[in-house]
Amino acid sequence: MIKAELRKLRALPATQAMIKAAAQKIEYDEQYGYGCMVRTKHVVTNKYHRLVRIQQLGAYIKIAVFYPKLLQKGIRTPTYEIFINTEGKEYITRELDKKGNETRWLTAMAVNLGEDFSDYTRRQRIYINPDGMRTLQNLLILEPDAGQKGWDRLIVWQRRIKEEQIKRREEREVRPWDADMKLVPNLPKSFPKWMQRHAADEVYIIYDYGSKEGWCTKCQRMVPVKSPRHNAEATCPHCKAEAVYKASGKCKTLETKEYYAEIIQKMPGGLVVRSLYQRQSFRGDYKKPGVFTHEYKRILIWDDGTTRKYDYDMYKNKYQRWIRDKDYFAGKSETLYWSTRSKLYKRNWSYLKNETFLKYSTIDLWDVLPCGVVRYMVTERGNPLVEKLVRIGMFRMARDVIGMNYDSKLIDQKQTELAKLLKIDGSRLKRLKEMDANVDMLRWMQYEKLVNKIWPDDMIRDFGRAGFSTSEFNFLPTPISFVKCWNYIKKQMLISCGTMWQTLTTWRDYINMADQLKMNTKLDQIARPKDLKAAHDECVLLREKGDAKKEAQKLAKKWPKVNKQLPKLKKFEYTADGYTIVAPESIEDIVMEGRILKHCVHTCDYYFSRIQTDESYLFFLRKAKSPDVPWYTLEVEPSGNIRQKRTTGDNQNKDFMAAVGFLKKWQKYFAKQLTKEEKKLGEKSNRLRIDNYKNLRKNGNRVWHGKLAGQLLADVLEADFMEVM
After folding, report:
1. Which pLDDT tens digit goes with each residue over 142-171?
2. Cα-Cα-Cα-Cα dihedral of 415, 416, 420, 425, to 10°?
3. How far is CA 454 from the centre of its chain?
4. Rounded CA separation 68/661 (Å)
5. Residue 100: in which H helix or E strand, if any?
6. Res 490: pLDDT
7. What's the rounded Cα separation, in Å, for the pair 524 and 716?
8. At what angle do helices 482-496 and 532-558 cross, to 10 degrees?
9. 236 touches 182 (CB < 8 A)
């Protein structure tokens, strides 16, 4: 409809009859609530919810919609004007302000106009001028016609028109899709069976109890079995597939997971790549499993390079069909998600080689493609390096080129010979091929050629597999040859039992900390310590000690008596059974303990408060062979009762149980060292602990973090308590 024509149609202001009707009221009693709480209220409201004036104006029907509140204020202009073209089966609505000025045009149906316009409108009281009722009856409603009248007839008519519009729009949208789908040929009859045998990730050998044979789900034949056990690993003696034994009596609910396959087919003007998944159910006769095969994706590739992707999905939340993915971009939209899960159907490959642009493709040389078929084809056609690498069996490097480890600057695009393309020579290419090189190994070989060196192949292989680049060693203050670095890392890997990356990271962290500690890292014995991990850990302690000293100074000002209290704990130190008890000599020792073990002993004031008031003390439980290495921190009462025993992260691990016997011996030794005054302090500490537990329970205090989160703090502390026997 032309809006300019609609604006020229004469206005339909409210009539006197409509103004009079808008002023009419109705009264009724309304109940609300439920059950015994039902109440009744008297309601006085407008008789009509809205008023409508309708006229036939030439080829159009004009419907003016008014609200009683506005009419009661003397506003005679409509809020909405609905225009209907019955011949063209069209409608549109114009919204007006209180002065009758146009504000906007709407395509909404009448039931959706205004805040209170909804399906509920059909149950509302609507005034329509008599001529308007007759005009609405002339609206032709498509079958079925339930005999709707007045406003209801308008609603039904608009709804039918909307449905027709949507249907036509959807038909226009799907018509080219269906044309594309008609180009797709039928699947080969052998494909479902092939997929069942060759694409399934899970292989079973199903046997009956007492039988010497079982059914292999891969080669689909009876094979000999010897002493099979349900769910035990097996190898099929015929097809050599890795399988799992399944007793027939226990596999009534046995189903495989979904497994995936792709097939390339010729179509008029190009190729189609089809993706399917399949699963098997062995609930019945396991030799004839139920097989469900579903095709979920099609990518059409024309000879001119045009691509279109379709997914089998829900269309407009109505039904399932093939739907075009309008955001698809060949080679970029595919991910590597299916790279190790999808199997390619190759039985039609000779035909594709002869009849399509895949004549020189290397797709068929892969056992398992590193990515989806389409991404591979796009990459291969745009980068000749992929084809050349695959042809000589360098699949690992080809995988890197296709994936995320590829840098376009790595090759010389102007060259055609593979060695020159890779910026190396023939002898180096031979070495790379022998070591099944990746892209990182190629980078090392390129740098070897640049600096005119010959490095050990094992070094290039190790560094390449670890993902090292030459810049990884820039942290060294004095350049060290890569060979020496390699030998040093290998030696330290044996000492620390770490990976190459872990060892390099430890080395880098060590050098960084050594520089901060003003150590002369230019000296070889400093830059390359005999035990890298030990040197690294020592630097950690030294750095922590520096920070701990500052923190200890602040705490000493806050708790001035603590450092004076600690020396008297020296007499309680004890060693036996491979363990030792160490008494802290200063607040700095306590801070270091808390920092290294990552617990709260140095950050909670009450520990220092208790030391200062002789309520409890702190001792360090350590292994005798390494007395300087923090292990467990103990909170001990003056009587020798142990309140808490915590290690890294405020935890208590299984390794602590081995030390319980030692601690009991120490408690006996502790008790023998006590003076009368210290015994009295112990009795006082005992009373304070009991009162503390009561208060914690009364307040409902809980542990809010760690393994014990949610438990009552009093319960946790009581369980940790170890009394002197």
Report:
1. 555 667 788 888 888 898 889 888 999 999
2. -160
3. 45
4. 91
5. none
6. 93
7. 51
8. 70
9. no
Asked which of 305-319, 609-623, 649-663 is least confident by mean pLDDT, the reply is: 649-663
Give which of 671, 605, 659 is closest to 633, Cα–Cα: 659
Distance separating alpha carbons of residues 620 and 627, to the nearest angstrom = 9
* More confident position, 558 or 31: 558
Q: Phi and psi at residue 81, in whole multiples of 5°?
A: -125, 115
The residue whose two tokens read 């009587």 is: 639
Q: Which two tokens stand for residue 399?
A: 């995988």
Would you place residue 525 in the very low, low, confident or very high pLDDT band (cuts 50, 70, 90)? confident
243-295 pLDDT, tens digit each: 999 999 888 889 999 999 999 999 999 999 999 999 999 988 889 999 999 99
Query: Region 554-562: what's the mean pLDDT?
Result: 91
Q: What is the pLDDT of residues 193-220, one digit of tens each?
A: 999 999 898 999 999 988 999 999 999 9
* Residue pair 27/43 in contact by the 8 Å Cβ criterion: yes
Burial level of 13, CB count in 10 A (0-12/13-18/19+)? middle
Q: How many residues does the chain have?
A: 725
Q: In whole angstroms, what is the distance from residue 70 CA to residue 48 CA?
A: 13
Q: Which residues of 262-271 are buried (b: 16+ CB within 10 A; e: fewer)?
A: bbbbebeebb
Interatomic CA distance for residues 553 and 432, integer angstroms: 60
Close Cβ partners of 209 (under 8 Å, ≥ 6 residues apart): 247, 248, 249
Does 402 have pLDDT greater than 90? no
Beta bridge partners of 44: 27
Computed over its alpha carbons, how large is the radius of gyration of the chain? 42
Residue type, 180: D
Strands in 290-302's sheet, in edge-to-edge order, are: 319-324, 307-315, 290-302, 270-281, 259-267, 342-344
Mean pLDDT over 12-25 rounds to: 94
Greatest Cα pair distance in the chain: 117
To which H or E segment does residue 499 belong?
A: none
Phi, psi of 263 (to 5 degrees): -140, 135
DSSP characters over 326-352: TT--TTTS--STTTTTEEE--TTHHHH
Rounded CA gap, 298 and 180, in Å? 10
Instruction: Please check whether residue 255 is in contact with residue 234, taking contact to mean a CB–CB distance below 8 angstroms.
Output: no
What does 671-722 look like in DSSP terms, one character per residue?
A: HHT--HHHHHHHHHHHHHHHHHHHHHHHHT-B--SSTTTTSBHHHHHHHH-B
Q: What's the one-letter identity of residue 170? A: E
pLDDT for residue 592: 85
Q: Which residue's structure tokens are 């699963």? A: 279
Residue 104: helix, strand or coil by DSSP?
Answer: strand
Token pair of 498 as six digits: 């770490």
Determine how β-strand 39-46 pairs with β-strand 642-646. Answer: unpaired
End-to-end CA distance of the chain: 99
- CA–chain centroid gap for 320, Å, is 28
Instruction: Tell me the C-alpha distance between 313 and 333, whole Å.
Output: 18
CB-based contacts of 30, cutoff 8 Å, min separation 6: 40, 41, 42, 43
Per the CB < 8 A criterion, the answer to whether 670 and 632 are in contact is: no
- Helix, strand or coil for residue 530? coil
Distance CA 599, CA 601 (A): 6
Instruction: Produce one character per residue of 344-366: b if its CB has 16 or more CB atoms within 10 Å, e if not.
Output: bbeebeeebeeebebeebbbeee
Is residue 404 over pLDDT 70?
Answer: no
